[in-house]
Amino acid sequence: MITVTFLGFGSVNHHLCTALHKKQQVSVKQIYNRNNIRLSSEIDSIPFTRQLSQLQPADVYIIGIPDDAIASFSEALPFRDKLVVHTSGGVTMETLSEKNRKGVFYPLQTFSKERAVNLKTVPICIEAGNEKDRNLLQKLGVVLSHQVVSISSEERAKLHLAAVFVNNFVNHLYAIGADITSQSGVPFELLKPLIAETARKIEDLSPSESQTGPARRNDLNTIEKHVHLLHDSRYKELYKLLTESIQKSYGKKL
User: Fold this and answer.
1) Residues 83-92: what's their mean pLDDT?
2) Which of 68, 87, 184, 235 is 20 to 30 Å from the Cα of 160, by its Cα?
3) d(CA 31, CA 17)
């Protein structure tokens, strides 16, 4: 059985902890958080502490805190030669303190505490400083997911960059669409079938093959109308920038 302690309890660790607590192959030893938190009924039997000095031995310690705090936090841990991993897509493994063995356990998904996620479908990217620890993280990963991939910090940084484009930036575009429809008195819900189909298409087609719209077909009249509608909007320059990017991708000019 693999014993795990969670250090920090943001959205990622919340989901990982809740899922692992249900698995017979894993024992969640403790949850640490610097502030008091209310645990859900599913996991309220797990010992909780606000004191690093009260941490008990575990096979894996999973850090789930803001990226810029990982280095100093890992240095403050009161033990040595334990396997300490973080869950960040954008932080190198080497950021972790030399006091302990290092690793990464990065689930490639967007997480919100209030929304359930099927971790079986979530790729888990692992990295470790030695083969023994990598094998341990592999065993831990397959308890949760059908897809566990060993990748380097450099590869993960590029994957995280791509994830920001396809998730964070795309979601911001949803917010812009919602703002435009709200200002126009049109229900945003009318766009949801389009959003869903756009996501489904890349199951069968490449993103390049899936591209449609006025920029893709070089419909300058429609583009001009859209720019005119956005004449006093802070979204106008973004519209033009994205349009130009699409057109350059397909060898056309605005």
Assistant:
1) 96
2) 235
3) 9
